[in-house]
Design brief:
Blueprint (H helix, E strand, L loop, with lengths): L2 H25 L3 H32 L5 H8 L18 H8 L5 H12 L7 H30 L7 H25 L13 H5 L35 H12 L6 E5 L6 H15 L4 E6 L18 H11 L10 H14 L2 E6 L8 H12 L3 E6 L8 E4 L5 H15 L2 H4 L3 H11 L3 H10 L5 H9 L12 H14 L4 H10 L8 E2 H8 L3 H13 L4 E3 L8 E3 L2 H8 L1 H6 L1
Parallel strand pairs: 1-4, 1-5, 2-3, 3-4
Antiparallel strand pairs: 6-8, 7-8
Amino acid sequence: MSRKDDLETNIRECYALISQYEAIQRDTDRPEERERAERMIGEQWGLIESYLDQYIPLCQLLNVAMPGDIAQIGARFGKELSETRTAAGNEGSPHHEGAVIGLARSPAEAEQIRPGLRTPREPGVSHKMLIGAVIVSAVLSLLMGLLSNLAATYLAPGLAAQAWLVYGALILMFIIALPITVYVFAHTLPQAKDHHPAPSREEKGNAVSLPVVPQPSVANPPSTPVAQFPSKLYRELVGRDVFIGDIMAALRDPAGKWIVAIDGMGGIGKTALAREVTDRCISEHLFAVVVWESAPREEFAREEHRWTGTFTFETAMDAIGRQLGALDVARLKGVEKAARVRALLHSQRVLVVLDNLETAKEPQNEIAHRLRPLLDSSKALLTSRHRFIDDLYAVHLTGLDEDGALRFILREAEEKGISRVATAKPNELKQIAQSTGGSPLALKLVVGQLGHLPLETVLGQLRDIRMPETEKDEDDYYRFYKFIFFPSWRLLSDDGKKLLISMSHFAPGVGGTLEAVKATSDLADEVLTRSIDELWRLSFLEVGESPSLKKVRYYLHALTQYFVLSDIVQVLK
């Protein structure tokens, strides 16, 4: 990226931040937030002024157009816009003049700007040089014609008596040679440069104070190829409006929430939610670029019931560098690599999406902790089956509520052409929602099975899973539970497994208080506290809402309870 591009990006980013801080001023009722937003707005305008002091002389030096949106921002400081050509040659046009003058608060302010917009430009010296090129080219063409005719006469003396042929050839040669020599000569001339002095501090002191008009359309749209994103396996993301709204608000926040982390059990829809949020960021132009990297899994080892991850913070930085076009990042080491990635993320607003961090080789909290200092105005969106405990904005994704689950069931049945689901009784659909706990992946499995099996059979297989004797005997239900629970189950300590099994005595979605859980598990206080934290971090245990901080209720998701009560757990133990 050139210096000119850097300055344009910085100016636009500062301008976008000003709009966001102004929104905070309008929406907040807290005086300290308004004061802070006002202070940040002043700082951003100061940065814009310093960037313009470099940008305008650079445009004059390069003899290039100043984009219309930058010209409008420049009008805020009373810059002499006529000193630099505006984009698409619209300088002085009624459209361009109206765009800039439209920022003025009053007719008097408009008149202060108008003379600068209508200052005529003197013809550049390039026109004189072009006229000189034509004259010199004409002389050269004439000489070429004479020389060619002399050569022809020398080689064929008999032609000298035929004057019309000699002069006809001369004219023809002149006609052919003239446009060629003019083209070559004119295109080898150095381009003329206009020399205008940079605006002085006195001129800036007479700045016209104009209102800020947000222009989200001027931001460059994100340039991440869609092929880089995971496949979009849904037509409409149902029942996640609240989560989407919370995450989008966090990503729009210019003063914090640099890392947003989505956690939840397997199959609950974390990747789909991240993809939907990413699409909305693209449509709103919140970021210049989106980087998406999914932590890969190695082949599942049946004997050891585990995946071996390969994703680290180093590979995350390599992916950021690669997707931002900085291929040198992969060759750098340690501090140099971190500094290079930090510079990339500071040069433009980037959304870094790291998916499936539960499979990473390094602890996900360490990756998040090391990523935070590199972001600056960029932000990160992380997903994992395990909960994050670092200083970030955490979103715990639960199952769909009853209304969302019913909509999901009907939409899935329509997509798969299973008409009998559309005509099912409401209590039958509610039974599906309750049995699956609103898990989108479980709902997909159940709806697909309903195409050829009765409801009680399908739900019975979902509840009563069996350990297959061989890998060939694995059915869809076993593979479903293996995908959701096996990787996290292998991470549990013996005490954690004991507590999880004891929690299955409570009704799913209801659970019990800390005292009831302690009585059921028969674990010592210290061990119980440690085991609860372990199950919570691995998304096995849910925490219910309580009107008091003194009381907490713990419960299992319906699918977690089915898994714990199955004979699979006995075999895995």
